[in-house]
Amino acid sequence: MGRIVIRTAWTIADVGGRQVPLPEHAIVVEGDRIADVTREPPRDAETIDLPGGIACPGIANLHNHTINGPLFRGIVDDLPRRAIGESKVYSVLMPMGSLAMTWLTEEQRRDLVALGLLEVLRSGATTMVDQFRPPQRVILELARDWGLRLYGAPYLFSPAKTIADPTVARATQGSFEGASGLDAFEAMFREFDDGERGRMRVILGPHAADSCAPDLLQRVDAIARERKLLATIHLAQSQGEVDRVAADRGMGPAAYMKSVGLLREGVVYAHGTHLTDDELDRIADAGAAVANCASVFLRGGKSPNFQRFKSHGVRVGFGTDAERMDMFAQLRATGFASKQAFGMGDAATAAELLQAATAGAADILRRPDLGRIARGMTADLLLVDAMKPHLQPIRDPVRTLVWYAGAADVDTILIGGRAVVRGRRAVGLDEPAIVRRGAEATRALWDEAKRRGHFPAEAEPAQP
Ligand SMILES: [Zn+2]
User: Are 306 and 350 in contact (CB under 8 A)?
Assistant: First the structure.
């Protein structure tokens, strides 16, 4: 069994359930496990030395759509509301995503996904939950080959006839031809799911409360319970969605989830932005979790915030929802959104944010062996190079990480004891080629989207 000794100036270790910075400790990794956190490591092992560095537990990105990173870069920023209608999800994002599935060649689609996934690999996330359209199964192949820890959730949708709003029905059906996606889920589950302690999981990903009817969601609940799988769904993402659920189902989003069995532990709601205080209390009681994606909403002028979810006792972790996939940038945006919303500098502290992003998120994923640096845990961790002008001196390494570091400061990433990033390079990948080819595929798609009118005119750069 391979043994690696990691030496840094600081180790953010799990001590009694809290993330505690220990100075001048070493982490001993044996196989895929952390064998020890000690001042006196064995001398006869391969060593990773990062003088002045910080060892940070692996961070989980609980909600992402990897291809949307490159696909919407520079397009969805600075958009006025009139450009995107009531919900940009259905008017801009989904038609473009649909085009990526139907118009790109298989090779171009692979290039696009690889570009997004390379960004994810270097983002500080050692675990990611990604919701994607079934034709994009290449994300599973790439994550498996690159050694990433992925919870892949192929989208499920109800057939258009059961969804009243024609915009929603049209946008969500783009690449499905009326199928729910359950067959595609089953095929991917058979091929890629590694089981309860595995690195690759295929989980249930019904799209949203307004695009999935009760029969589909009940089926999701049954499969999830039977196979002990997680489920994730967009919930209360926009007021429009809440209104449509009220019109179609005669209840609010949380009650709708309860009615189909999905108000419970093991279910992760993306966003929850428009949930009422009462609904948040019910979600907290039921043990369901929220993936808080602050920056994608801040971009549009809204501020869903961690502190609000937390004050109701909701289990909450963080997702990027493809608004930059830098987890450190996400934590910072999340913290600042909370501080602004509550008018309190001590809302959403660095310690609270890091705990939620690492150990808290791991618990939400039913993997208490992740997100913690301690003896016996799975060796998912990051080494941050802190010998940088924007990171020195260090008074509290947790604050240094959350408020001052960025993904570009990550020197090394271990997933399951294996280095996937080393010396700020993705191990075994031709990064320049991935970047070039991914950008080419994306540009080709943009041109086609313009021809078809899926491209908001306001997304053209302003003329000076
Ligand atoms: Zn999303």
Answer: no
42 CA to middle of ligand 1, Å?
Answer: 45
Distance CA 98, CA 174 (A): 5
Instruction: List the single range of 172-186, 202-216, 265-279 with lowest mean pLDDT.
Output: 172-186
**Ligand 1 centre distance from Cα of residue 321 (Å):** 5
pLDDT in tens, 187-212: 999 999 999 999 999 999 999 999 99
Looking at the fold, whether 212 and 229 belong to one and the same domain comes out as: yes
Cα of 10 to ligand 1 centre, how many Å? 35
pLDDT of residue 84 exceeding 90: no
Q: Distance, CA 234 to ligand 1 centroid (Å)? A: 6
CATH number of the domain residue 34 falls in: 2.30.40.10
**Same domain for 160 and 264?**
yes
Residue 122 has pLDDT above 60, yes or no: yes
pTM of the model: 0.95
**Segment (H or E) for 172:** helix 166-173
Q: Are residue 88 and residue 16 in the same domain, yes or no?
A: no
Ligand 1 centroid–CA 207 distance in Å is: 8
CATH of the domain at 218: 3.20.20.140
Domain that holds residue 186: 59-364
Residues 13, 45 within the same domain: yes
50 C-beta neighbours (distance < 10 Å), count? 19
Spell out which residues have Cβ within 5 A of ligand 1, the ion.
Answer: 270, 321
Q: Which two tokens stand for residue 401?
A: 């990480």
CB 381 within 8 A of CB 57: yes
Calculate mean pLDDT across residues 139-154: 98
pLDDT at 162 over 90: no
Dist. CA 65 → ligand 1 center (Å): 6
8 Å CB contact between 35 and 5: no
Q: Compute, in angstroms, the gap from residue 27 CA to the centroid of ligand 1.
A: 35
CA of 273 to the centre of ligand 1 (A): 12
Mean pLDDT score, 338-348: 95
